[in-house]
Fold this protein.
Amino acid sequence: MTEFCYGRPAAIARLQGGPEAPRLSGTVTFFPADTGTIVVADVAGLPVGNGPCASGVFGFHIHEGTACTGEGFADTGGHFNPGDCLHPYHAGDLPPLFSSNGQAYMAVLSGRFRIPEVLGRTVVIHSGPDDFTTQPAGNSGKKIACGVIRKV
């Protein structure tokens, strides 16, 4: 499984924050794997709350839209869901990002999609955690960052 660390990613999304998180930036890289796709997120500038119980947990999804435009990234549309599944079984549903003083790093193997299926689609970070229950998208709040997935 670790062989992906030595290869080049097949796709990348460069994240930019919107008005809710203007300093947010980062990359999401996509590596092919035998059983799906390895997704690696490296993010800085996430909003930092006050107090020991401030959230620091952010919904993270691949969306069906092809542009990071529109008010509040409205043009990203809903979660990538070619199988018409209920949430959290959409192909674009990913684990949340856990912030450490505004930074997050996450790597996950997803068997729900292959890289060619998500090229040109968007990766979105939301303002709050995904509850993994509420339909259709987990009640994870506003879209605070976005990037379009491009072939490397």
